[in-house]
Amino acid sequence: AMSSRQIIRKNRPLIEMFVIISLVTILFLGAVYIFRSLRCPPSCSGDNLTGRDFRNKTLDGSNFSDATLTGVDFTGASLQDVDFSGADLSGAILAGTNLINSDLSSVDLIGANLEEANLSNSTLSNTNLSGANLAGATLTNVDFTQSVTLTAVILNKATLIGANLAGVTLSGALLEKANLNGANLTGASMDGANLT
Predict the structure, then answer these.
(1) How far apart are CA 144 and CA 147, in angstroms?
(2) pTM for the whole thing?
(3) Which residue in 101, 104, 98 sits closest to 79, CA to CA?
(4) How far apart are CA 150 and CA 177, in angstroms?
(5) For residues 75 and 7, which has the higher predicted lDDT (pLDDT)?
(6) 160-161-162 Cα angle (round to 5)
(7) Max CA-CA distance within the chain?
(8) For residue 28, what is the enclosing H or E element?
(9) pLDDT exceeds 90 at position 98
(10) Are 91 and 72 in contact (CB under 8 A)?
(11) Given phi > 0 = left and psi -120 to 50 = alpha, else beta, which region is 168?
């Protein structure tokens, strides 16, 4: 019978090969992790970033298209000219953010917190804002007519100067003390909306 020392000696080339393959695999996976963390942001297209913390970060011009951003905290972040098209931002915290000129096309913002956010000149098309909190938000010159869902949206004290709400359904929306100067409300459905 062979001793354990003889078995090790006989299989030494296999053991060395296994150790080398293991080290190369660990180094490769580490390099992939470092590369991904260095490129995102600004290049986060399609990434799952659930639960990430981007509070007070400057992320202007970043690409979050088709990313999963459920519950992500962007409080106070600068998100000017950001591409969020196709992203899931349901339950995300975007309070006090700068979203000027951002692309929010086909974005899910159900229940998102956008209090005091600035969405001026942002693109909203097929955007779902159901139950989103936009209290005190600035929505100057925003076009809501491209299949934007505003059911039970909170727009109290929001600035909607020059916004296009023609034909939009605002059922159950809260618009208390909202500034609608120059806003187009032609044919808008206000069933159950609160404007007092």
Answers:
(1) 7
(2) 0.80
(3) 98
(4) 17
(5) 75
(6) 110
(7) 94
(8) helix 12-39
(9) yes
(10) no
(11) beta
